């Protein structure tokens, strides 16, 4: 199940190092999550999840506070949460999650991005059935055996615990996200290398070199779209 989460995060952070794009996307995601309920992460699970993920990407506090203040205000911006599914080179599978205030803009953009980069957009359900929604939480300074014992003592039956690079990653049910974090926080661990809800493929595929280059171009193009929040896929990430 390993995905080398730290390497993936560092790659994304490096790509966005000279832009404010990643922060702008987090601003929208925080605003939308806060509008779902109370603008208080302790009373709003969706907001708590996105704030924890924002911390792992070092999103500035000013960006977070601005989004929360906006959600507390009287102004309303209507965003829709949409999921698109499609196929990349050599049968690779891709899920695209978007937040948009203009569906008529977003859908054609995503469709054309697929087609211009060697892919094609599928119908709803054509890909998602091959992925599992999963809580992914990583920490440093612990061994896998120590983390397994911590989960056992807390009576949490998580999916898996793996050592990946210098971190230990816990894979759990989505509704265990907060519980896993609480186990770590009760042990004095408050910094996480990764803390997010993700769509993990049930099986990974390896692409030939020529298809890999085209696939990475497609993923980069999708992630560059303003309305796209997350892109998930089933391609082996060892080379990413």
TrEMBL record:
Native organism taxonomy:
Bacteria, Bacillati, Bacillota, Bacilli, Bacillales
- Per the record, the major location class is cytoplasm
User: One Gene Ontology cellular component annotation?
Assistant: cytosol
Question: What is the originating organism of this protein?
Answer: Paenibacillus odorifer
A Pfam family annotated for this UniProt entry: Transcrip_reg
The residue ranges of the TACO1/YebC-like N-terminal domain are: 3-73
Q: Could you tell me which residue ranges the TACO1/YebC-like second and third domain spans?
A: 79-235
A GO molecular function annotation here is:
DNA binding
Question: An example of a Gene Ontology BP annotation on this entry?
Answer: regulation of DNA-templated transcription
**Name of the protein in question:** Probable transcriptional regulatory protein BJP51_07430
């Amino acid at each position: 199940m390993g995905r080398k989460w730290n390497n993936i995060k560092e790659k994304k952070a490096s790509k966005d190092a000279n832009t404010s794009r990643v922060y702008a996307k987090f601003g929208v995601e925080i605003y939308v999550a806060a509008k779902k309920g109370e603008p208080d992460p302790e009373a709003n699970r969706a907001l708590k999840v996105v704030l924890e993920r924002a911390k792992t990407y070092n999103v500035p506090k000013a960006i977070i506070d601005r989004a929360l203040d906006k959600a507390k205000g009287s102004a309303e911006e209507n965003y829709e949460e949409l999921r698109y599914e499609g196929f990349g080179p050599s049968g690779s599978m891709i899920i695209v999650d978007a937040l948009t205030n203009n569906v008529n803009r977003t859908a054609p953009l995503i469709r054309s991005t697929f087609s211009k980069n060697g892919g094609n957009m599928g119908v709803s359900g054509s890909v998602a059935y091959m992925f599992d929604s999963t809580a992914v939480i990583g920490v440093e300074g612990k061994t896998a055996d120590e983390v397994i014992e911590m989960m056992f003592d807390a009576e949490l039956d998580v999916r898996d615990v793996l050592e990946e690079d210098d971190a230990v990653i816990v894979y759990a049910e989505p509704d265990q996200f907060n519980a896993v974090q609480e186990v770590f926080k009760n042990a004095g661990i408050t910094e996480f290398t990764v803390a997010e809800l993700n769509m993990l493929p049930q099986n990974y595929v390896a692409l030939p070199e020529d298809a890999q280059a085209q696939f990475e171009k497609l993923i980069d193009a999708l992630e560059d779209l303003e309305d796209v929040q997350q892109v998930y896929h089933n391609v082996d990430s060892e080379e990413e």
